[in-house]
Each structure stands twice: as structure tokens, then as C-alpha cells.
Design goal:
Two copies of one chain form a homodimer. Chain A is an alpha/beta fold. In chain A, the strands form two sheets. Chain A has a nine-stranded mixed sheet, sandwiched between helices. Chain A has a four-stranded mixed sheet with strand order 3-2-6-7. The longest helix of chain A is centred in the C-terminal third of the chain and has 18 residues. Chains A and B meet through helix 7, strand 13 and helix 9 of A and helix 7, strand 13 and helix 9 of B.
Chain lengths: 300, 300
């Protein structure tokens, strides 16, 4: 089944302790789309400016990603993020954020996107995410990401959004912040009680936790010493997860757990290169091979 | 097979955000022994003072733990630790450490302990750990724990110890400190290259990682919202792991992975009560039941 994603499309500038790279193809919708494209057809909604290189669009199209929902603002500049990773490659400082055209982004879905059954709302202000939901009334599964900024500044809209979601994906610190609860298992269920039928807490190098009414589980990250650039890992995770669900056209408990594992594995490739560089080297076969290793790792 | 453990025996005073408890049965050898006793017969070596309550010894004996190696210093006082946990129940402050009789502890193994094949060296100064090793020349498997203090102050002895170990168990921050490497996968293998045939990195609520020449894997912690007192969780983990290895009298890769899982599960019970309180409520059947849940959690 086709999968619609609405989110940011960005030009990233990334510094790691080893290397500094400029003008990387970035953004939540980008990382998400690319990862999901290994599993299903993806329809992207986002906004860029006149500076957006056409080759980036071509790259996405080459993966079968429909970019007819990518708005181009002719007199605008693309959203840009500059960040520097610490030695541990987990913590990072945002050196600069230029919202540019993202600041006035009005997510409008092309007519043929509106029949989508699978929808992912990348991190954005909750009022925008709600606006997207209203355009896909026939959806079967809507999952969103969020961030500390909205928990802090748009709580009412966020609460309203949570009511309408099937699933929420957020990271560990956001889950603690949203609930005021330090224990992640308790926090996960508290978030779930705010509305979503299921909640996924991303723990970065420590994997991901899943919470539904009857299930609580955690799957570890795929262990790798080759962490080149963690930017977009969370979006890549969500893309792998949602891509698999859309491909299976199912979100029963068994499919959800497998989807979580695919998300973890796709994200483990994503961090092995800057931007989308490593992702461009792999095929679905590489993902399946790593899945076999992952299954072996968890078997005893 | 009998399992010898040498380590601290303590009186703990613990504060959590919920509760303050004094005079808990604590210490690395104690938590280790109790956990290992679900799997095999344990022979404990440690030291206490005249203040040591006989009922604590009786409790250990009731689990089949041989305490003939527990030295009692008639004019001494038992090692005591006072700590306070933060809201997150992971970080803690040591409020007071009274080394007392532990400061001059000379680990001497009773004659019948010296034929042991399975030996665990709880965290102690490396020179003491080396002294223990020299008393069990016929051992089949020697595994040790260590801590930041010895990495800082006794590096030469520690390096000498690492050369003679089959396995080392340490936590994530210690692994980073020992190697100067922030990526845990890389750090794990670097520690292994210092001598031990295998290395286990404990990640607390995030589980444990295993490193041998041909294997790298991670198993997640058992997710629980019921964290009452994390004191001794790492020793409990090591006790479950070593107890299972000694019971199986094997440490082939398959047995090691299962042992790691048992360590994780026993530790998950340990944190559900102050001191050893929760451990006194459970049986091997409870551990097996949780193992079934854990297997299910990791299957998809």
C-alpha cells in the first residue's frame, strides 16, 4: 500500500569528531522516505526553496518516491540545519537552524495522496500535523513523531493530536518530558494513555521500546562500531517501520514487532554514512541479510 | 559445578526518591552468591566484622551458599555503603563509604575451595584479585569485575589481571574509561584485546553486550516499571550468568548467550526490592517463567 509522509526536507551541514560535511540531503521526510522506499511506494509532502538541487529530487524519484507533493517556493530558501556531534556520537549541538520556507509550510496533499491508508506525520508543529490528518479521512494507520519544542509550546494541540493517532514515535527524553516520568516503561504506557493505540520510544544506540495495551517489549539496536553520522536515524527507523507495515497492509502485533525490527536495521545502515550516502549503497537484500544476523543475535 | 566468588560483603543504607532503608544485606559477593544459588552451589569468600548479624549468614546458608570462606574480624566493623538514588533510579550519589574490615581484606581460600573450576572475582583491587587467581591454579573459567577506581589507580595490576582472565564484566562507563573509546562496540573489542577471551559490558536498564573474537551481540534488559532498588544489579547479573555456566559446566558460545540472558533476568528480579528482599520471594520457576516471556519478547 502507498505510504504518505509529511515532514521536513532539508540541507544539512554536519560536523563529527572525524569529519565536516556540508550540503547533505537531509530532513525527516527525506530520511523517512528513503528508508520506507525499500518496502513500499512512498508519497512525500514537504517544501523546499529555489536553491534545492534538482538532483536530490531525482535521487528520491529513482527510489520510486512520488515527489508531486514537494512544494517549491520560487523566492524561498530551503530549511537548513547545522549540527556538531560530540565524541560519543549520541549528543549533539545544533549550531544553526534556518527555518526558511519551512517556517510558513502549509501541508497540502495532492488529490491522489488523500486516499492513502498509511500516513506518517514527521515532526512538525501539531497544528500542521492535525491539518494533514484532516486531509486523509479514510486512513487506516496514522503515526506521528514529535519533539520537545512542541511538548513545551503547543501542548494543547499536541494533546488533541494524540487523541487522533494510532501510533506515536518519540525518543526517550521526549517521553520523559511528556509524562514527567523517569522510568521509560512507565512513561511509555503513560503516553499511550494519552491517546495513541501504540507508542514507540526510540533509545538510539540502545534500540527501541514498544507499548500497546497488552504488550511491552524492547528490541536492541543492531550493534555497530561504524557510526559515521547519526543524523536522521530516528526518521530512518520510522521509515523502515512504516514502510514494512504499509507493504504488509497490516499492523497486527506480530507485524508490528517485525516492523520495529526492520526500522532498527534500516536505521543501523543509515548511521553508517553521512546523509543518505550509505543508504544509496544498499539493497533490500542487504537489509534481509542483516535481519538474519539480528535474528541469530536474539536466538539462544 | 561449585562456583567460588570472592568479593565484598556489606551493610547498605539506601535512599530512593520513594523510601529510605537502613541496614540492608549488601555487597558484591552477597548479591552475586544469592543470584548464583538458583543455579549451582556457591562458595563465598569475604570479610565481615563483629557487628555482622548471624541471621545474614543463615540466610545465605539457607540457599546452600558455603560461608566457610567468610572471615569474621572480631574487633572489626563490616564494610558499609550509603547511597542515594536520583529520580531516574540510574544515577546515584555515594553518601558514605566505610571500608572498615574490607580495607585490610586478605582473600584466603579454604582448602576445599581451591579445587574450584569456576571462579568469580568481584570488584576489588586487582592485586587482591590476582592473589585469588593464584590460589585456584586448576580453574576452568575465571571471570572478574572491576571499577573506575582501579582503572585510575592500579592500572598496572589491572593489566596483569586482564592477561590472566577468561572473562571480564564491567559497565559501560568503565569500558569507555578503560579504552578511551566512546563507541561501546569498539570499546568492548578493545577491552577483549587487552587479554580476556570474552568481555561483557553491562548497560543497566539497556541490557548487556557480549564480545568474543568471533561474536558481538547485545541482549536488552527485561523491561520493568518496578525498579525499587538497583543496588547490586550488576553483581546479581554476574551471579546469574556465572551460576548458569557452572551449572552447565560449559562456556561454549551458545551456553554463554543463555547465561547472559539468565543474568539479565535474575538482575531484573533483584531491582524489584531493597537489598535481597525480592530475591527471597522468588524460585527458579519464576526465573524460568520470565525466561519464557523474554524469549517471546525477542521472537518475531
Amino acid at each position: 500500500m502507498p505510504l504518505v509522509v509529511v515532514g521536513s526536507v532539508a540541507i544539512d551541514h554536519v560536523e563529527t569528531p572525524q569529519e565536516r560535511r556540508r550540503n547533505l540531503l537531509g530532513g525527516s521526510a527525506t530520511h523517512f522516505s528513503y528508508s520506507a522506499s525499500f518496502f513500499t511506494s512512498v508519497r512525500l509532502v514537504g517544501v523546499v526553496g529555489a536553491d534545492w538541487p534538482d538532483e536530490h529530487t531525482q535521487l528520491l524519484n529513482s527510489r520510486g518516491i512520488d515527489t508531486s507533493g514537494l512544494q517549491v517556493v520560487p523566492d524561498g530558501k530551503t530549511f537548513s540545519w547545522t549540527g556538531r556531534y560530540h565524541e560519543n556520537m549520541n549528543d549533539r549541538d545544533t549550531l544553526e537552524t534556518q527555518l526558511n520556507v519551512l517556517g510558513t509550510f502549509d501541508p497540502v496533499l495532492p488529490e491522489d495522496y488523500r486516499r492513502a491508508k498509511y500516513v506518517f506525520l514527521g515532526n512538525d508543529k501539531p497544528s500542521n500535523q492535525l491539518k494533514v490528518l484532516s486531509q486523509v479521512p479514510g486512513r487506516r494507520l496514522a503515526v506521528a513523531d514529535t519533539m520537545n519544542l512542541w511538548i513545551d509550546t503547543a501542548r494543547e494541540d499536541l494533546d488533541h493530536l494524540l487523541d487522533q493517532l494510532d501510533g506515536l514515535v518519540l525518543n526517550d527524553s521526549e517521553a520523559k518530558m511528556l509524562t514527567g516520568t523517569e522510568n521509560l516503561v512507565a512513561a511509555g504506557h503513560e503516553v499511550r494513555e494519552m491517546g495513541p493505540k501504540f507508542v514507540v520510544i526510540k533509545k538510539g544506540e540502545h534500540g527501541a521500546m514498544f507499548f500497546s495495551e497488552h504488550e511491552t517489549y524492547v528490541l536492541p539496536a543492531f550493534p555497530t562500531a561504524r557510526v559515521i553520522d547519526p543524523t536522521g536515524a530516528g526518521d530512518s527507523f520510522a521509515g523502515g517501520m512504516m514502510g514494512y507495515l504499509a507493504q504488509q497492509d497490516s499492523f497486527d502485533p506480530e507485524t508490528l514487532k517485525t516492523a520495529l525490527a526492520y526500522g532498527i536495521l534500516v536505521a543501523s545502515f543509515n548511521v553508517e554514512g553521512f546523509g543518505l550516502e550509505r543508504m544509496q549503497e544498499i539493497t533490500r537484500d542487504d537489509i534481509e541479510e542483516r535481519m538474519q544476523d539480528y535474528h541469530n543475535m536474539l536466538s539462544f
